[in-house]
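Severity: low
Component: inverse-folding endpoint
Summary: output formatting inconsistent between runs
Steps to reproduce: submit the following structure tokens with default settings.
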């Protein structure tokens, strides 16, 4: 049999063509007309887990999108990892800005362009291919592997949260492995030890029962659009601080050691500014950009709409105005408390002449983990072997709320070993996944299985008495 390394380099073309297959499925979870495609992506994953050598694979239907579970448990006495990932993707609009169609995966300059390439189908299959590589080259795998793949990550993971609670026994493991994040840069591999949490709200401001002629009524009634933008403008001050009373009450302060570690990273505000093409950066006074993105909470309007937005002019006072507002959270803020405080403040500052409703769409807590756990150290060794350089530990500003749920429900550590890059255009046009990162990611996953399979590779050493 070929060695693992030789096998993986031999199989590159096949791995790439399989990646293209799954990226061609438009599994947009938020779009009800794409539900059959999300199901197709689940079926693809189901089949691929079977052909990789999983001995039991099951697709569970849920009230929304299916969950795919797979396992290979042939390494008696060895640790078990649970690989989590998602096969749903974000919407693709604005479509006209894509250089190649989002569901026709296209390789340019060593990168594959397609929606879901980095977030998360391309990343998740690295682990499926790694298990398969072990089984095909040695007939066994150094650890037991379970997979939990879902189709609702981009819309809040509601079904998988429930599944986790109901199937905690079946999902028992020594560590959870997730590849749904990016590395610091291609030259500096990293492991993520912190994510921000999220509270997502939709605000509705209603004035009259129906739209009104702005000549007949203008000046004598309130305009809900004016009212809403006035309210939203009061959520942050000019220095970038959120003004919702109590918003910062539970925010854990950055430690001196963490601030020092962030400052030691090769980050440039200039380069960040240029990479996004903005005239300047802006954020909470007193913090660096990395601190603002990774360890401070934030608030953003994600969408706002009301009245007439077509071509030309229409003189109208809209009956209602709406906005989607989300807040990124840090330890120890809780989503429920922040949602309550935000809703109360919005209602308090709303003019008397409108009716305001605030709906909580979804949310989840931030996650920060110790970096010295044996599973983290094993991941660090695996990355050094695959990427030729020891990884640094970083935090990320994005959210994967289920990570904290895994730790809480299963009582095991999570390792966030992502292979994306900062310029992967997640949730934006021209999402891509760097193919070097893909191939090295498969290696890193295979090495992680080896490292965790070492005696005590995944276990905390027993305390000496
Ligand atoms: N892969 C991302 C999470 C992510 C983004 C990690 C950026 C690190 C950096 C994930 O698929 C995602 O987009 N999550 C959502 C949260 C979810 C509850 C909708 C997010 O962060 O907006
Ligand atoms: Zn995403």
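Observed output (run 2 of 3):
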């Amino acid at each position: 049999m070929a060695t693992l390394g030789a096998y993986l380099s031999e199989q590159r073309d096949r791995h790439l063509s399989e990646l293209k297959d799954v990226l061609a499925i438009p599994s947009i979870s938020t779009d009800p007309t794409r539900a059959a495609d999300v199901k197709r992506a689940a079926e693809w994953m189901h089949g691929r887990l079977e052909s990789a050598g999983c001995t039991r694979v099951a697709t569970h239907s849920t009230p929304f999108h299916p969950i795919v579970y797979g396992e290979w448990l042939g390494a008696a006495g060895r640790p078990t990892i649970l690989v989590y990932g998602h096969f749903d993707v974000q919407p693709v609009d604005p479509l006209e800005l894509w250089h190649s169609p989002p569901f026709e995966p296209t390789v340019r300059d060593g990168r594959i362009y397609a929606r879901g390439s980095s977030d998360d189908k391309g990343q998740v299959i690295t682990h499926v291919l790694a298990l398969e590589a072990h089984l095909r080259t040695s007939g066994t795998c150094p650890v037991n592997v379970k997979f939990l793949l879902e189709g609702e990550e981009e819309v809040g993971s509601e079904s998988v949260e429930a599944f986790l609670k109901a199937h905690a026994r079946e999902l028992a493991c020594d560590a959870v492995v997730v590849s749904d994040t990016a590395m610091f840069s291609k030259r500096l591999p990293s492991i993520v030890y912190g994510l921000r949490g999220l509270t997502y709200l939709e605000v509705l401001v209603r004035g009259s029962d129906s739209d009104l002629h702005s000549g007949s009524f203008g000046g004598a009634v309130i305009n809900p659009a004016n009212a809403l933008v006035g309210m939203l403008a009061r959520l942050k001050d000019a220095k970038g601080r959120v003004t919702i009373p109590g918003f910062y009450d539970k925010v854990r302060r950055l430690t001196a050691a963490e601030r020092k570690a962030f400052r030691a990273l090769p980050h440039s505000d200039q380069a960040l500014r240029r990479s996004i093409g903005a005239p300047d950066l802006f954020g909470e006074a007193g913090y660096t950009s990395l601190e603002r993105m990774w360890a401070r909470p934030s608030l953003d309007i994600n969408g706002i709409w009301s009245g007439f937005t077509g071509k030309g002019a229409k003189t109208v006072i809209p009956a209602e105005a709406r906005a989607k507002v989300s807040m990124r959270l840090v330890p120890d803020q809780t989503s429920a408390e922040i949602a309550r405080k935000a809703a109360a403040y919005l209602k308090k500052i709303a003019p008397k002449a409108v009716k305001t409703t605030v709906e909580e769409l979804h949310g989840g807590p931030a996650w920060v983990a110790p970096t010295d756990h044996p599973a983290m150290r094993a991941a660090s060794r695996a990355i050094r072997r695959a990427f030729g350089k020891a990884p640094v530990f970083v935090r990320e500003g994005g959210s994967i709320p289920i990570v904290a749920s895994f730790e809480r429900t299963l009582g095991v550590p999570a390792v966030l070993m992502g292979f994306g890059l900062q310029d992967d255009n997640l949730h934006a046009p021209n999402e891509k996944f760097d193919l070097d990162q893909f191939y090295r990611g498969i290696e890193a996953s295979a090495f992680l299985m080896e490292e965790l399979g070492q005696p005590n590779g995944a276990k905390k050493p027993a305390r000496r008495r």
